[in-house]
Known about the structure:
The protein is of the alpha/beta class and about 280 residues long. It is about 55% helix and about 15% strand. The chain has 13 helices and eight strands. An eight-stranded mixed β-sheet has the order 3-2-1-4-5-6-7-8, sandwiched between helices. Helix 3 crosses helix 4, helix 7 (about 165-175) packs across helix 12 (about 250-270) and helix 8 packs across helix 9 (about 200-220). It is elongated and about 70 Å long. The model has no long low-confidence stretch (mean pLDDT about 95). NADP nicotinamide-adenine-dinucleotide phosphate (NAP) binds near residues 56, 72, 74 and 122.
Amino acid sequence: MNDTLAFIGGGNMARSLIGGLIDNGHPADAILVSEPNAEAATALHDTLGVRVSNDNHAAATQADVLVLAIKPQVLAGVCTEIAEDVRYHRPLVISIAAGIRADSIDGWLGGQTALVRCMPNTPAMVKAGITGLYANPGVSADQRRRAESILRAVGETLWVENEALLDAVTAVSGSGPAYYFFFMEAMIEAGEALGLNRQAASKLTLQTALGAASMAIESDESPATLRRRVTSPGGTTEQAIHGFEAAGLRKIVHDALRAAHDRSVELSAQLGNPENLKK
Ligand SMILES: NC(=O)c1ccc[n+]([C@@H]2O[C@H](COP(=O)([O-])OP(=O)(O)OC[C@H]3O[C@@H](n4cnc5c(N)ncnc54)[C@H](OP(=O)(O)O)[C@@H]3O)[C@@H](O)[C@H]2O)c1
C-alpha cells in the first residue's frame, strides 16, 4: 500500500520529483500538492494527474510524508503555519530548501520532528541529479529508506551523517553543474578560436563531457588514472594538461569550492533567522 505523499510548493523541483515518482510507478492519486498559484496547480493536475489543493493544512494533515518544496525565504512562515498539524499527525518531513538547517525547521515546526534535509541539484530535471541527504535523530530506518526512495526518482543519493557536510555537498554537487557549464563554455569558445563553427564546437564539447562522465562512472579506475591513461608522453593531451597545471587550475578549483562552501555556511546562518528574511 502506498502512503500519502504531499508536497508544499509545486514548482520546478516538486514537478521533477513527482514526474520521476510517477514514471517509477508511484500512483498519482496518492500524491497531493499544495500550490497557491491556481494556474500552476491546474497544470500539475492536468499533466501529472496528482491531487492539488491551495491549503497547506490539507497537505500537512493528510501526509505520511510531507515534502517542503518551497523557496527558503518562505519556509519559516509555512512551517509556523502548519506546525500544529505536524505536531498532531507526525509525518516524515523532507525539506529540499537550500541552506536551512534541520534545527531551524524543527524549531519552526514545534520540535521533535522526524526530518530529512536534502540538497538536490538541477540535473534532477533530467533524472541525472544527485542529492545529499541528512536525517535528524527523529528519523527511523524505515523513514530513511522512504526519503531515499523519493529522491532516487530523480537520480542518485548520498547520505551524510554530519549535517555540516551538506555545505560541502552544496559546494561540490549543488553548485557543481554550473562549474561544468562554465568549463563547457570555455571549451566551446576555444574550439571556435581554433576555427570550428559554434555548432560544431558545441557538439564536440557536450558529447565529450557526457562521454568522459559515463566512462568515469562505469570504470573502476579513478578519474586521475583515466586521465593518465589518455595522456601519452609528448602528445597533445599532455600539452593541454601542462597548460592547466601551469595556470594553477587545481588551486583555482580548491579555492572556488572553498568559497562556495563558506558562502553556504554564511547563507545558512542568515536564513535560519526569519528576521533576516524580511530585509
Ligand atoms: N531548482 C533546483 O535545482 C534546486 C536545487 C536544490 C535545492 N532547491 C530547493 O528547492 C526548493 C524549491 O525550488 P524550486 O526551484 O522548485 O522553486 P519554485 O519553482 O519557485 O517552486 C516553489 C513553489 O512554491 C510555491 N509557494 C510559494 N509560497 C508558498 C506557500 N506559502 N505555500 C505553498 N506553496 C508556496 C511557489 O508558488 P509561486 O510561484 O506562486 O510563489 C512555487 O510554485 C527551494 O527551496 C530551493 O532552494 C532547488
